[in-house]
Amino acid sequence: MPMAPKSPARNARSRPRRLARRRQKTGVARYYQLYALLSNALNDGTIAPGSALPSEPELAARHRLSRTTVRRALGRLESENRIVRLRGSGTFARQAPAAAKLCLNLHTFYKDLPTIAARTSVSVLRFEPEALPAGARDLQSHLGEHAFVIQSLHKYHGTPYQISTAYVPESVGRQMRRNSLGSTSIITVLDRMGQKTVSSEHTMSAVAADDIASRALGVSLGAPLLRMRAVFIDSKGRTRALCESLSRPDHLNVRAELERVRARRAHSPWRLRARETVSAKR
Amino acid sequence: MNSARVDLDATGFLLMTARTNTRTGIARYQQVYTVLSQALAAGNIAAGEALPSEPTLVRQYGVSRTTVRRALARLAAEGSIVRRRGSGTYAKRGLEKSGATRKVTRLLDDLRRVGSNTRSKLLAFERVATPDFLLREWPEFGEKALLIRRLRSVGDDPVVLATIYVPEELAPLLSPRRLGLDTVLVALDKLGHRAVTADQQTNAVAADPFSAEHLQCPVGSALLNVRQLARDAKGHILDFTNFVYRPDCYELHVQIERGNGRRARVAR
User: Fold this and answer.
1) Domains in chain A, please, with CATH?
2) Shortest CA gap A128–chain B (Å)
3) Cβ contacts (< 8 Å) between A249 and chain B: which residues?
4) What number does CATH give the domain B12-91?
5) What is the pLDDT of residues A225-257, one digit of tens each?
6) Are strands A270-272 and A252-260 parallel, antiparallel or unpaired?
7) Residue B108 has pLDDT above 60, yes or no
8) Where are chain B's structural domains?
9) Least CB–CB distance from A108: residue in B108, B261, B265
10) What is the pLDDT of residues A7-40, one digit of tens each?
11) What are the CA-CA distances from residue A208 to residues A177, B84, B202, B223 (Å)?
């Protein structure tokens, strides 16, 4: 069945872009709604670098907004250096700056630990004994009643991209040296202490930045952050560390290459791709 | 991250406070509301427990008392807190999530398997020119694609909004009826095109008005975003999907075994 050729303009329109008529009392400014729409389109490449954005009158008509509102949304994107407005010519998406964006590959997680530790810097904010948080009480038998908390701020090229809070057994924490955590990941420090991690479970979600995270990471209150929770387990099946990290989505990418456990079977579960097969498949 | 003691003066940049900010386009009371309702939903403030006092919240978020009151009024109106005159503000017992809407935690999921009350609403099914961002990253995708956009709900809760692009060669195989409740990958599998590798990128995004409307959440709220490209055994692209999940309904779960990576697997 041949497909009728369609112009890119038609393609752009196929995305339902009209802003819904929203109640005024959403607490979200109308210009911000347009800004969010355009911002996501620029982020995911729907509006490609170098290509033109719809004109101001077009945006105003399509979303039933005033010119002032449209200008405010564009003004914000311009101040963030994401678009360029050329007088008499139009508004264009800028080439995304070679952003200092760190990539975390889950399929090579343990192998990458030293590289990431070497490329990033860490300042330890808290390093002290503390009771486990309410959500982790079921791990008390592993970590002990009094755990040791290590809260750190991670920077890449000088920009804070992640705040992490780790809990280890108190006896273990007391043997760690605060300075050693600046250039080495906690997992590596635990390894050297003979507490080798053999597996981990990671859970990813999105959260709104609370007051601590917003200050530490330089984002506004409520801004979206990627939350990763991890439980690190040793060869005897004991939990050796709990870690929760909040990361800025514009500074960290999390990637996972997956493959079927049994390629020939339908509904076969997926797993992280083993490194050996990567080159074979490509 | 609810334990609130950070030595804020220890590092220089922390003095450069972000705080709430009217220039973000999101009202201050809305920002405070978002953070508090998240703390309540996550159980950081347990049912029956008192919220910090108004003056404490004023200091904590650097906002006015009026702003704090407005945020609390909104939480009270939707029944997540109760304000007792002369006593304080308390978290109300959260509505227990039904079994079906409990968090789904799969690495590459078929939500259909979650429960019988999963629904799928087809929002778009049309042929389009392949968007530039796909062509730039995967030039072999081809000039034309089938665009499928669907919303999946479990019970009454919208869980995920998926935008899927299928290469032109595979497009004739699919129809809204063939798709039914299946994911595109399951439907293609039944038609003899099995996905054996997938490349996923996970991040957080702010809800744009379109996702906000369908996922029934405020514009600007945090959503989990998964972008995924699937290939068959020969390395041919089967689909590209952009998933946007409501984080209170879905989490991504990965188990990693240490070693040479061979034994790494996905839990559940």
Assistant:
1) 8-93 (1.10.10.10), 102-260+268-272 (3.40.1410.10)
2) 11
3) 203-205
4) 1.10.10.10
5) 999 999 999 888 888 899 999 999 988 989 999
6) antiparallel
7) no
8) 12-91, 99-245
9) B261
10) 434 344 344 445 545 444 667 888 888 888 888 8
11) 32, 28, 16, 9
Multiple choice CATH, B99-245, 3.40.1410.10, 3.80.30.20, 3.30.70.1140, 3.30.590.20 = 3.40.1410.10
CB proximity A56 to B under 8 Å:
no
Q: What is the pLDDT at residue A4?
A: 42
- What the block records as the tokens of A169 is 């057994």
Predicted pLDDT at B97? 44
Q: What is the pLDDT of residue A279?
A: 37
Distance CA B268, CA A270 (A): 10
Contact A125 B128 (CB under 8 A): no
pLDDT in tens, B160-216: 999 999 999 999 999 999 888 888 998 999 999 999 999 999 999 988 888 888 999
Strands (E), A11-87: 83-86
C-beta atoms of B6 and A212 within 8 A:
yes
Q: What ipTM does this complex have?
A: 0.78
Measured between beta carbons, the chain A residues lying within 8 angstroms of B8 are 215
Residues 202-241 of B with CB under 8 A from A: 202-210, 213, 218-225, 227, 231, 233, 235
For the ranges A219-223, B3-7, B224-228, which has the lowest average pLDDT? B3-7
A232 touches chain B (CB under 8 A): no
Please check whether residue B60 touches A, CB under 8 A.
Answer: yes
d(CA A95, CA A48): 8
B34 touches A: beta carbon within 8 Å: yes
Please tell me which residue of chain A has the smallest CA distance to B108: A270
Put simply, the answer to whether A218 touches B13 (Cβ < 8 Å) is yes
Give A-chain residues touching B225 at CB under 8 angstroms: 206
3-class SS of residue B170? helix
Burial of A84 (0-12, 13-18, 19+ CB in 10 A): middle
Q: Identify the top-confidence range among A268-272, B114-118, B137-141.
A: B137-141
Residue A131 buriedness (CB in 10 A; 0-12 / 13-18 / 19+) = middle
Residues for chain B: how many in total?
268
